[in-house]
Amino acid sequence: MSQHQCRARHQCERFSDPEGTGNGGDVFGMVVSGGRTVIDTLDTKMKVIGMDSGNRLNISSTLPRGTRDAMQFSPALIVNGKQLISGSSGWGLQPRSVIGQTKDGQMLLTVIDGRQPGYSIGITLGDLTDILYQYGAYQACNLDGGSSAVMYYRGRNITRSSAVTPDKGRHIPNAWIVDAN
């Protein structure tokens, strides 16, 4: 976080993390940053979550032309205003991280803590989809949740990680970052 002058950071991509103690270095799926393809392996089981130069969020099966930043995860929750998930969809109650956007371009970065009885047990994807829809999400996709579900704001973690080492969190390979500008 210190290398970026930013207001918020939001974990996103799935990665190899044996026993919850990995270094976050093995990303699965495509990564594009600043218009440059960092990892070009398209995982056909995952959605491409991309942002163009006009800061419009796109969720699709391929990398759209003109994408500035992108990564992959699943499932898509809302695409073009249509809710795609209901109930738990077999995913159960978990900590969640989601990126979304309203039709007028407002970003919806959402983290729900979980796996902490007495504080938060998490949320189903269906309930989270319903909440995002109520807030006007036109696009929304699930990101890496579980112990990766963290959000930083102004240099401070504002969530409670369920990581093996909650005081240290866990190493992550990438994140959506909201710049102060």
From TrEMBL:
Residues 1-24 are annotated as: Disordered. It comes from the Bacteria. Residues 22-178 form the Phosphodiester glycosidase domain. Pfam families: NAGPA. Signal peptide: none annotated. This is Phosphodiester glycosidase domain-containing protein.
